[in-house]
Structure formats: structure tokens, C-alpha cells
Amino acid sequence: MKNELAKLLDNVSKAVVMYHIDSDGICSAKIMSEALHRFSIEVVDYFPATPKLLNSSDFQIGVDRSRPDIIIILDCYLSADSCLFKNNKDLKFLIIDHHDVKNIPSGDNVLYINPKLNNVKKYIPAAKIVFDTVKKLVEIDDLDWVSAIGIIGDSGAPQHKSFIQKVFEKYGLETGKDKKYFFDSFLGRLSNIVDTGKIVKGSDGANISLKVLQESGTPREFYEKAYQLRQWYDKVEDYIENELLNFEQKKEEIKELDLIFYVFKPEFHVGSVLSTIASFKHSHKTVVLFSKKNAQTTTINFRRQDKKYDMGLLAAKSTEGLQNAGGGGHVPAAGGHIQTSDLNALKGKIINELKKMMKK
Ligand SMILES: [Mn+2]
Questions:
Q1: What element of type H or E holds 336?
Q2: pLDDT tens profile 31-83
Q3: Which helix (H) or strand (E) is 142 found in, with range?
Q4: Which of 20, 92, 266, 337 is deepest in the core (most CB within 10 A)?
Q5: Residues in the chain, pLDDT under 50
Q6: Does residue 152 form part of some domain?
Q7: 127 Cβ partners below 8 Å, 6+ apart?
Q8: 159 and 98 within one domain
Q9: Cα of 335 from ligand 1 centre, angstroms
Q10: Spacing, Cα 68 to ligand 1 middle (Å)
Q11: What spacing in Å lies between the alpha carbon of 34 and ligand 1's midpoint?
Q12: What is the number of alpha carbons within 13 Å of residue 339 lying toward its C-beta?
């Protein structure tokens, strides 16, 4: 990989970094931007992204303005059919991701790093792939804690336990009671704090989290500097606790399918975190959470913690054929979006797809 990446970065002086707005994506962006800085490449713009936005038919922002040599996309799928790729063939592309690979860009100007391309079965969050990739170019061992935060945020700690434990020992941090996912550890709390920017302020908030992370050299320094994010986190934590009670009371259960639906109109962007917590409480059930954003758009989170059925497949298959809809992700966790008017149609499609999966 060293040669391929070094070759791609040859003659590059300006980069735009686009990153998924969750903890894993934000941590990936911090590691990448530090590495580029040490490699004497300037990051002229950061762009918080989602797969829906990057692959939409009119997305072009940030690229003309800052005239980069390379577009770097982290923790997000990019389609060969996206305008972002098709309209910028004169630029280089570096994409580092761990989501499903469907129709990916190729060419001399493209390096697409994704373990799924090599049929690697191990679950590796983007913050770990980015860390392992750039450390072949520059010394970045001091950013191991950032990689660990991203891994924990993407529920990847069980697959990377020895790496995580080394980080806890190195910085003398408390590990908490949860020795599998480390959600209640010090780094788990930092992951929640990183996520809070997005939860409270959407994409702009992700940039705030990234900025504080970039100003921090150690986990404790980040904790101290993230004063405002921590205040937001306290508010969000209360909201989530309350919404979890609502979930238990108002959830719609389809017992024969081990399926739970929950529809709500969230005050913050809590769909991802709420569905993760709820699904750990119902780990042998498929949990599908519908967040009604507005009259046009509803986002969906699919969770199944015992991994009996593939949520990435369920998200992709059930949104297929609906207008302005899409979905995908990983076996235990996936996401999607639909038009709000298709909510009941989607429920029906999820039930059908699950029935098919149960027969196999
Ligand atoms: Mn990720």
C-alpha cells in the first residue's frame, strides 16, 4: 500500500478532506489531516459528509472554490456515477472506507482502499484503516488514541481489543465495566462527545468536533477543550434517556419476526445512537428506527446485534425501488433514507425482506 499511496500523493500540495459525520469519520479526518500536514500537504477545506449527500446528483460544493489536487473521502461510499467523481476527473481521489463496495470509481487518478475489496471478513472501522494506511508514510503513533475513539464509536472494539487495551495502558485511562465494546470507558465517553457535535448541530457540529479534536494532542487535552461539546452531551444524554423510555412504551413489535419498529420525530440527530443503545437491550431482535426529519425526509437506522441477519442488505433491499431512497451499511448496523410519505410502504418491504431472510 505504501507505494500506491505515496505514488498518488506525489506532486500533491492541496487536499480537500470529506468525512462521514460520525465519530469514526471525524476521527478518520483528524488522523488523515495530521498525516497530510506532516507530509507537507495542505488541507484547504474540510467537508462533513454523508453517503446520501456525496452521491446526490447536484453535489459539487467546496471543490471549485479551493482548487485542490486531490479529494480525500473518509468513511463514506462514493459511486462512480456521482457528480463529484464525474465532474472532477482531472483531480486525484483517495477514498478510504469500510462500507459495501457497489459501483466504485476507478482510474489512474483513484486509490480506493476498503478491506471489502480484498474480501477481508474482519470488521475494521475507518479510523483504524486510515491509521494503518498513513502510518506507512509518516510517524503518527501519537494518534493511536484517536483511532481507538473511532473504533469504539463504530462498535468495533471486540475486533480490535489488543490495540484498544494498549491505548488505555499507554495513556493511563479508565476502562470501565464494559470489556467488550468499551462504551462506558473514558475513550467511549470521548467518542460520545465527538458524536455530540453532529447530534446537536448536524454537519456544522461535526466540523466543531473535528476542530476541537485537531487542537488536542492527548485524550485528556481533548476532554478539557471539549467544554462546550460536553455541555451539549449532558443535554443530549438526558434527551436520549427519556426517548429510550418512549421507545419501550411506544415500540411496535412484530413477534413472529423478532422485529421492532419505532417511529419518532427527534429533537436532535439521535437516530444512530438511540438505535444502537436500544438494539443492545434487544440484541436478538431486529430494531428499525424511523426518524421523521420533516415532511419530505425520514432517515432509518437498522440494528441487529446478534448479527443473525444482515442489516446492510436489509437496508439496501427494502429501500430499493422507492423514490429518492437508499440504504446500506454493515451486518449489525445500517442506515437509509426515504421520502416520509413512503414510511408505511417501507415497513411492508422490511417485513417481506425479513421473511425471505428467515427462510434461508
Ligand atoms: Mn465508519
A1: strand 333-339
A2: 999 999 999 999 999 999 998 889 887 776 556 667 899 999 999 999 999 99
A3: none
A4: 20
A5: none
A6: yes
A7: 24, 27, 28, 31, 75, 146, 147, 149, 150, 151, 153, 154
A8: yes
A9: 12
A10: 25
A11: 19
A12: 8
The whole domain housing 275 covers 251-359
Which residues have CB less than 5 Å away from ligand 1 (the ion)?
Answer: 24, 75, 126, 154
pLDDT of residue 62: 53
The predicted pLDDT at position 175 comes to 96
Together in a domain, 38 and 179: yes
Residues 201 and 267 in one domain: no
Q: Is residue 29 part of a domain?
A: yes
- Rounded to the nearest whole angstrom, what is the distance from the C-alpha of residue 359 to the centroid of ligand 1? 30
Q: Is there a single domain that holds both residue 67 and residue 178?
A: yes
* The total number of structural domains that make up the chain: 2
Residue 2 confidence (pLDDT): 52
Q: Which long-range contacts (CB under 8 A, 24 or more apart) does 213-220 make?
A: 213/26, 213/27, 213/30, 213/146, 214/30, 214/33, 214/34, 217/142, 218/145, 218/171, 219/145, 219/149, 219/171, 219/173, 219/186, 219/187, 219/190, 220/171
What does pTM read for this prediction?
0.91
- Structural domain includes residue 270: yes
**pLDDT at site 168:** 98
- Residue pair 263/243 in contact by the 8 Å Cβ criterion: no
CA of 97 to the centre of ligand 1 (A): 7
Q: Is 105 helix (H, G, I), strand (E, B) or coil?
A: coil
**Helix, strand or coil, per DSSP, at residue 42:** strand
Is position 240 within any domain? Answer: no
Ligand 1 centroid from CA 139, angstroms: 23
pLDDT digits (tens, 9 = 90+) for 253-273: 999 999 999 999 999 999 999
Q: For residue 264, which of 281, 235, 239 has the smallest C-alpha distance?
A: 239
Cα(159) to ligand 1 centroid in Å equals 14
Going from the Cα of 249 to the center of ligand 1, the distance in angstroms, rounded, reads 31
Residues 6 or more apart in contact with residue 31 via CB below 8 angstroms: 127, 130, 131, 134, 140, 143, 146, 147
- What is the distance in A from the centroid of ligand 1 to the CA of 303? 15
CATH number, domain containing residue 344: 3.10.310.40
Per-residue pLDDT at 58: 75
> 338: CA distance to ligand 1 center in Å?
21
